[in-house]
Amino acid sequence: MKRHVIYRWFFDYEKEEVWLNQMAAKGMNFINFALTRYLFEEGTPGEFIYRIELLPQLVTHPESQDYIRFMESIGVEYVGKWGRWAYFRKKSTEGPFEIFSDIDSKIKHYKSIFTLFLIVGLGNAIPGMNLFNIMLRRPNHYISPFISLNFTLAVVTLGLATRYFKKLRGLKKTKQLYE
User: Fold this and answer.
1) What pLDDT is attached to residue 122?
2) C-alpha to C-alpha distance for 65 and 59, rounded to whole angstroms
3) Which of 95, 44, 57, 53 lies closest to 71, judged by CA?
4) I need a surface site. Which of 42, 85, 121, 135 has the fewest CB within 10 A?
5) Domain locations in the chain?
6) For the chain, how far is it from start to end, CA to CA, in angstroms?
C-alpha cells in the first residue's frame, strides 16, 4: 500500500480528531505520528473511525499499557502516541466509536486537558515574565526570541485552557439538569 506523509500542527485535539476522520473518509488511514509528521496509508475510504485521548499517565506507564490492552480487547486498535496522548481507531463497520460515553467521563477528560494546558501555559508565562524583567534591566538581544516563544506558548495554551474550562463548565451545567 502506498504511504503519504503530511506535516501539520494542532493545539486542539478535537480539531485533530476531526481532521484524521476526514482523511479516513478519503481513504487515507492514519498509522503513525511524530511531533508534526502524520503518516497515512492508502486504504478503503471510511474504513476507520479515529479517537484521541489524553491518558492519566504517559503511554509507557503500566496503567496506560493496561488500558491500551483493554481497548484492544474490545476491538479498538492502538495507533500511536505523543506524550500522554493516545491515538485509537476502530473499523467503522463495527458501529459507532466513542471513548467517552457518559457525561462524567467527558468531564474527567476535559479536566485533565484543562489542567495540562493551564500548567503548560503558566509554565511558559512565568519564565517569560522573568526573562522580560531581566531584559529590561540589562538589554540582551539573545533572550528576546525566548521571551517571544514563552509568551506565544503561554497565550496559545492559556487560551486553550480557557476554552476547555468553558466546555467543562457547560458539561457540569448539563449534568446538573439531569440530576
Assistant:
1) 87
2) 7
3) 53
4) 42
5) 3-94, 103-177
6) 51
Q: How far is residue 11's CA from residue 16's CA, in Å, rounded to a whole number?
A: 8
Beta bridge partners, 40, equal 4, 30
- At 78, list the grid cell: 492502538
Average pLDDT of each block of 10 consecutive residues along the chain (179 residues)? 93 93 98 94 97 95 96 96 95 94 92 94 78 66 69 87 94 86
Distance CA 120, CA 174 (A): 28
Give me the amino acid identity at 131.
L
Which amino acid, one-letter code, is at 130? N
Q: Cβ–Cβ contacts within 10 Å for residue 162, how many? A: 14
Secondary structure of the chain as H, E, C letters: CCEEEEECCCCCHHHHHHHHHHHHHCCEEEEEEECCEEEEEECCCCCEEEEEEECCCCCCCHHHHHHHHHHHHCCCEEEEEECCEEEEEEEHHHCCCCCCCCHHHHHHHHHHHHHHHHHHHHHHHHHHHHHHHHHHHCCCCCCHHHHHHHHHHHHHHHHHHHHHHHHHHHHHHHHHHCC
pTM (two decimals): 0.84
* CA separation for the pair 90, 75 (Å, rounded): 7
Q: What's the pLDDT at 139?
A: 67
User: Which pLDDT score is estimated for 124?
Assistant: 80
